[in-house]
Amino acid sequence: MGSIEEKVVSDITLPSHIPESAQTPSQAPVPRLFSLERRTIAITGAGRGVGINLAAAVLEAGGHAACIDVLPEPSPVEWASLQKLAKSSNLTISYHKCDITSEESISETLDTIANEALEAKAPLHGTIACAGIQQKAPAVDYPMDGFRKIMEVNVTGTFLTIKHSARIFMKQQTPGSIVMIASMSGQIANRGLTCTAYNSSKAAVHQMCRSVAQEWGQHGIRVNTISPGYIRTAMTDELLAAEPALEKTWMAGALLGRLGAPEDFKAPTVFLLADGSSWMTGADLRVDGGHCASA
Ligand SMILES: NC(=O)c1ccc[n+]([C@@H]2O[C@H](COP(=O)([O-])OP(=O)(O)OC[C@H]3O[C@@H](n4cnc5c(N)ncnc54)[C@H](O)[C@@H]3O)[C@@H](O)[C@H]2O)c1
């Protein structure tokens, strides 16, 4: 029974009189809709945490990964396993130390990545803007240098990353997909957390997504955000170390009985980068273990 159904689906060719059916890349079979073969993806914040896991996701989907981070070196254990994976899959993985708040530095880094990608016949096709920072302080006492720093990295740095990625896609005259890692905190105020600057910065990322999506769609460039809930990484370890009682509050909203892991973002990110999401732009994909679904 199962095998008959599988055969019908794999051999299917639907006659279509819908003009848009001839235009969408989503005509391809489903595995191809999740493939990043012959494409290079740049990932900021890929020295550790969620970003380095997303680099693994890119490789696993058949793409080449170019990691960007302000850290001098990526986390050694994860990096060794990425190199192994790249080698066994005949793909490339590269690491570029770069501060995304410097326009000169991020534009040069992305140009280098794009030129190498063209030479390798796997053009830069996507960018994941994942670098971000967090700081907890009551709003009435918020240190202004901390507030400005969060805006500088999470808003200006993210904008510079996507601005220069879009310029490359336009110059190459290729389509491109940009995924920005925002946060559920861009839409809700986290109970018990005093993070006004971070929350405001992530709301700015959501609006940045909609703004550039309406400018760049005509060039075949798609822009979407992912809004994670609480993920266990160095960022949240720091928050929990300062205030361990927070974990109980977070777990109270965890409809699936656990916090997120960096790996929970692999499939959502690959989906947004690849052709399966070819009619999605200016949208937000919330991946939060159900946190925002209940009060
Ligand atoms: N951890 C969570 O619960 C959570 C929840 C929602 C959203 N997010 C978002 O996910 C993304 C990744 O977070 P994470 O938890 O992996 O944090 P992380 O601190 O482990 O990783 C962030 C990375 O960004 C890099 N970075 C910081 N400033 C930079 C700069 N100026 N230039 C280049 N790189 C820079 C850091 O060096 C680090 O490697 C962030 O945008 C964060 O806001 C995280």
TrEMBL record:
<keyword id="KW-0560">Oxidoreductase</keyword>
<dbReference type="InterPro" id="IPR020904">
    <property type="entry name" value="Sc_DH/Rdtase_CS"/>
</dbReference>
<dbReference type="Pfam" id="PF13561">
    <property type="entry name" value="adh_short_C2"/>
</dbReference>
<dbReference type="GO" id="GO:0016616">
    <property type="term" value="F:oxidoreductase activity, acting on the CH-OH group of donors, NAD or NADP as acceptor"/>
</dbReference>
<dbReference type="InterPro" id="IPR002347">
    <property type="entry name" value="SDR_fam"/>
</dbReference>
<keyword id="KW-0521">NADP</keyword>
<comment type="similarity">
    <text>Belongs to the short-chain dehydrogenases/reductases (SDR) family.</text>
</comment>
<dbReference type="InterPro" id="IPR036291">
    <property type="entry name" value="NAD(P)-bd_dom_sf"/>
</dbReference>
<dbReference type="GO" id="GO:0050664">
    <property type="term" value="F:oxidoreductase activity, acting on NAD(P)H, oxygen as acceptor"/>
</dbReference>
<protein>
    <submittedName>
        <fullName>D-arabinitol 2-dehydrogenase [ribulose-forming]</fullName>
    </submittedName>
</protein>
